[in-house]
Amino acid sequence: MPDLAVVLLSGGLDSTTAAAMMKAKGYRLLALTIDYNQRHRIELAHAARVAAALGVERHITLPLDLRGFGGSALTADIDVPKGGVEPGIPVTYVPARNTIFLSVALGWAEAADARDLVIGVNALDYSGYPDCRPEFIHSFEAMANTATKAGDEGQKFTVHTPLAHMSKADIVHAAAKVNAPLDLTWSCYDPTPQGRPCGACDSCRLRAKGFTEAGIADPAL
């Protein structure tokens, strides 16, 4: 039987492409979406549609309200920047988000007897988040194999980051090769009152850059 993997699925371009790539490699998928009361909660519905389109074995949307902590434009009453992608860590960084999300995914993976985790982090065309870097992923993987019963028994976990060294254009091309359902995806951090992408936040800009450079029309628009 093919290996089972837990994929963190936000419903965005990157996580959808990563999931589709793993499916194309023959993995069976469990999809985990975190409802952290994010400003762009519209992505939760998109994640559910993507999960259905990919035929995952189970999709869990887990409530984990990070607005209680705040500290980010995605979880507090702080304006989402619209002036373009700038150097440094932006205010849309959610404190320790990928550490928290991967930890939850690790718990499900161990319970489900899966030893593969998948996250669509990208360290080229991205917003400067420290928890998207390869060093973080390597450190988390080492922790996972130290802190779990499965790891202690020699059943090693692997954190897959198939997009880690891709540009956004590369990701768009990779998605096309595996027929990822990008028409169902959502990337915007600050939806309009009409439920449309704002077109100006970092995530919108990076998505548009990727499709433009790939020479492919965005099917979600």
Automatic annotation (TrEMBL):
ATP binds at L9, S10, G11, G12, L13, D14, S15, T16, T17, A18, A19. One of its GO terms (molecular function) is ATP binding. Its EC number is 6.3.4.20. GO terms for biological process: tRNA queuosine(34) biosynthetic process. It catalyses: 7-carboxy-7-carbaguanine + NH4(+) + 2 ATP = 7-cyano-7-carbaguanine + 2 AMP + 2 diphosphate + 2 H(+). Zn(2+) binds at C188, C198, C201, C204. It holds the Pfam family QueC. Keywords: ATP-binding, Ligase, Metal-binding, Nucleotide-binding, Queuosine biosynthesis, Zinc. SUPFAM superfamilies: Adenine nucleotide alpha hydrolases-like (SSF52402). Binds 1 zinc ion per subunit. It comes from the Bacteria. Pathway: Purine metabolism; 7-cyano-7-deazaguanine biosynthesis. InterPro entries: QueC (IPR018317), Rossmann-like_a/b/a_fold (IPR014729). Its cofactor is Zn(2+). Catalyzes the ATP-dependent conversion of 7-carboxy-7-deazaguanine (CDG) to 7-cyano-7-deazaguanine (preQ(0)). HAMAP family: QueC (MF_01633). PANTHER family: 7-CYANO-7-DEAZAGUANINE SYNTHASE. Belongs to the QueC family. This is 7-cyano-7-deazaguanine synthase. It comes from Polymorphobacter multimanifer.
